[in-house]
Amino acid sequence: MKKYNIAVIPGDGIGPEVIEAGRMVLDEVSKKRDFKIEWIEYDLGANRYLKTGEILPDSVLEELKKVDAIYLGAIGDPRVKPGILEKGLLLKLRFSLDQYINLRPIVLYEGVETPLKNKTHEDIDFVVVRENTEGLYLGIGGFFKKGTKDEVAIQEMLNTRKGVERVIRYAFELTRKRNKKKRLTLVDKANVLTYAHDLWERVFYEVGEEYPDIEKDHAYVDACCMWFVKNPEWFDVIVTCNMFGDIITDLGAVIQGGMGVAAGGNINPEGVSMFEPIHGSAPKYAGTGKANPIATILAGKMLLDEIGEEEAGRVVEEAVKKALKSGKIKSMDAGKMGITTLEVGELISSLISG
Ligand code: IPM
Ligand code: MN
């Protein structure tokens, strides 16, 4: 029987609960599809940091480089100053494991409500490919005369030819593989960021020549936000830089029914990838059983796709679709589901075991 070593980082807040539901579903589908998941648990996050001062020890990082994939709940705790765990754990993992793709599907499933008037599941089905290892996220910069009236703060946006090219190429390949509208939209701000995003545009059209079957489309990021609301049906695949990808995928999450259903993958196509719900740790719901695990379960589906168990991934997605259509989950919002986090996991597991 095929066996996969999956590292699991439940993390903070609602992380452990949504991960428990996600693991339940993945274990269920593994039985059905005849493979085994060996879970290797890591207690990284706020508690460990507050107890020991450790965020991501080198020894752990070395171990994580050897697993088949990582399943992450959520990171963040009100007792820890914002930025410490985000940078020290989440971003450090993305960078150290060179997970240069942040893949975020924006899909409105049937039975899920969108705040967009007159839009249905037929209109909202696209994927954002967010660059995940460069841009404004590297923390290059500094202060000068900090705390004085003359203070200067600089934060650099780094773009490498290699980094831009590999994410754009991935996006073209994905657009071809999806085989839907066959349209790739580059989202940037080349009218203002005339160096950084000039590079993006040049690479986009240059690489695009190798993909004559794919329509090349372009939108400035501000206009893109408008189109997300007005005409989401226009999009098929979007490729964009780290910062813009961060921002537009929260908007994307809202139009697909909320943070409760939005999943993401930090992917290194040649290495170890990490899958997570894109919501945060929601400390106020921690331990209440009120958090929606659907995003985590769909992140699990993406994990299965990446390790080569696409059929299992499809089974999970079908079960999620059925659960959403069943009306048994009253709302996608935490606290309003009408059933508990684990009950959602059980419902989806039962739809898998049939
Ligand atoms: C996300 C999050 C992270 C990001 C934070 C927590 C560092 O917002 O995954 O979208 O900005 O990438
Ligand atoms: Mn974000």
Give a structural overview.
- The chain has eleven helices and twelve strands.
- The protein has 354 residues and is of the alpha/beta class.
- Helix 1 (15-33) runs parallel beside helix 11 and helix 5 (161-178) crosses helix 6.
- The strands form two sheets. It has a ten-stranded mixed β-sheet, with helices on both faces. A two-stranded antiparallel sheet has the order 6-7.
- Bound molecules: 3-isopropylmalic acid and manganese (II) ion (MN).
Summed up:
This protein has helices at residues 15-33, 46-52, 58-64, 84-96, 161-178, 196-208, 221-230, 242-255, 294-307, 310-325, 341-353; strands at residues 2-11, 35-41, 69-74, 101-107, 125-131, 141-144, 152-155, 183-188, 215-220, 237-240, 263-267, 274-277. It is of the alpha/beta class. The protein folds into two domains: 1-105 and 265-354, Isopropylmalate Dehydrogenase (3-Layer(aba) Sandwich), CATH 3.40.718; 114-256, 3-Layer(aba) Sandwich (Isopropylmalate Dehydrogenase).
Keyword list:
354 residues, alpha/beta, Isopropylmalate Dehydrogenase, 2 domains, ten-stranded mixed β-sheet, two-stranded antiparallel sheet, 11 helices, 20% strand, binds 3-isopropylmalic acid, binds manganese (II) ion
Considering the protein shown, what is the CATH homologous superfamily of the largest domain? Isopropylmalate Dehydrogenase
Average pLDDT for all residues: 97
Strand portion: 15-25%
Measured between the Cα atoms of the first and last residue, the distance is: 22 Å
